Prior knowledge:
Blueprint (H helix, E strand, L loop, with lengths): L17 E8 H5 L4 H5 L4 H9 L3 H22 L9 E3 L5 E3 L6 E8 L2 E8 L3 E7 L6 H8 L2 H14 L1 H22 L10 E4 L7 E4 L10 E8 L3 E8 L8 E6 L3
Helix pairs in contact: 3-4, 6-7
Amino acid sequence: MFSDLSLSTTANGLGFNEVILKYLSIKQVLSSHTISSLRELLSDEERYRVTTLRSESRRDSFIVSRAALRLMLSSLMKETNPEAISFSFNANGKPALNHVSSLLQFNLSHSHDYIVIAISRNLPIGVDIELMKARLTMRKIAENYFHRCEQKAIDYALKAEGNSAALRLFYKIWTLKEAFIKADGKGMAIPGDCFYFNNICQFDPLIAFDGYASDEPQNWHFEHHIIDDLYSIALALDTSHSKGKLIVSKERFTF
């Protein structure tokens, strides 16, 4: 039906140890596709939601993100039209596919011009993206929402390397914490100071828990990426049911 709206590369299924992480620029997508053609990929409920959004930028980001997500899922599910995919939500608002036969799990995040989408098979997943803009309240946010170990790491970065390095570390911690909360599926029921990250300067930091006993640190896999030197992206995966070594493919999404 939408011959001009398909993925540039077709997915041939997704293994139990494989993860797709794709990011896209809203401006870049809209430079080659009309918003009306993308809107046709959405469900009736999503089209209604578009009408409730007041700003054009919010409407555009909603339409592009949902269209991209539906195209990615339909390419993996095979013979399922993007607009026919339906979702359900848990008590904390985390979305899931309604299709009983599908084991795909996904998560989506948006910040300014960029959208990031992560998909796995049977592995709870969370992703977060943030534009690393300067924040005068950075230290205050850390005091209110970060673990004391993370606060100390930011203080050390401020003293040793300056504000720029501390800001990047702040956003790395922020996105990692958001990605974990989204993957865990309990939403804001998880206090930000009941877990923290060790080896925070590494590509794949380790999580530790402080007063939160429902998870095992060794069951979690994290990755952090920076794109265009402006955006911080974090990926969280519950690997307790993984089969073999994880393979994460990160690439720019193109139609």
